[in-house]
Amino acid sequence: MEKIAVMLAPGYEEGEALMVVDILRRAGFSCDAVGLLGDQVTGGHGITALADKVFDGSLDAYGMVVLPGGYDGAAALRDHDGFQEALKAADARGAWVCAICAAPIALDRAGLLDGRIYTCYPTTAAKIEAPGAEWVDEIVYVDGKRVYSQGPGTTFAFAYALVEVLGGDAEKLRQGMLYNKVLGR
Predict the structure, then answer these.
(1) Taking the domains of the chain in order of start, what are their residue ranges?
(2) In the annotation, is 31 catalytic?
(3) Sign of the C-alpha dihedral computed for residues 158, 167, 61 and 116 taken in this order
(4) Which candidate in 31, 98, 101, 120 is catalytic?
(5) What is d(CA 11, CA 37) in angstroms, rounded to the nearest whole number?
(6) Residue 1: pLDDT band by 50, 70, 90 thresholds?
């Protein structure tokens, strides 16, 4: 089973990060909230979370790396040279690299959107400079070993998609968490 890192950088979107950690753990996956700069990380809405681990320059222990949005948090991941190198190394070894909301700006700097189809928060798409990248207006989009989503309101769909690509039972979670009621099922 893949071990997962959900990155927490100052200014991260709390719901996108913490709900993803919650759903992945409910699905039985080993999931660490990883603080980029320390173990206490304050999000964009003033909620401070305690990370399970602090980024040590490597993502080698993880088969999936998830980048939540929140523009300031995404920018911190984009601008952190050590994280950028670790992200490129994770991609090169075939890890899942997943991003929601504004977080594709960090993938853009790493060169991981070049020639890719992706989604993100609609206004963030204008900030992507990757050659050949194509934005699609989808709630969740899977492209190879990448999973993307658009924003806070799409977090549940994003997290369930992560469970699915890792081989977990997302339908059981949707039912147990009453998400199917939201979908009218």
Answers:
(1) 3-182
(2) no
(3) negative
(4) 101
(5) 12
(6) low
- Which tokens go with 172? 């059981």
Tokens coding 95: 């890890």
Number of H helices and E strands in the chain, helices first, is 7, 11
- Burial of 126 per CB tally in 10 Å (0-12, 13-18, 19+): exposed
Burial of 86 from C-beta contacts in 10 A (0-12 / 13-18 / 19+) = buried
Percent of the chain with pLDDT over 70: 99
Bridge partners, 149 (sequence order): 100, 140
For 178: left if phi > 0, alpha if psi spans -120 to 50, otherwise beta; the answer is left
- Domain 3-182 in this protein, CATH class: alpha beta
Q: Over the stretch 23-81, which tens digit does the pLDDT of each residue have?
A: 999 999 999 999 999 999 999 999 999 999 999 999 999 999 999 999 999 999 999 99
pTM exceeds 0.85 for this model? yes
Distances (CA, A) of 135 to 103, 127, 141, 159: 14, 11, 10, 20
Helix 71-79 crosses helix 81-92 at what angle (to 10 degrees)? Answer: 80
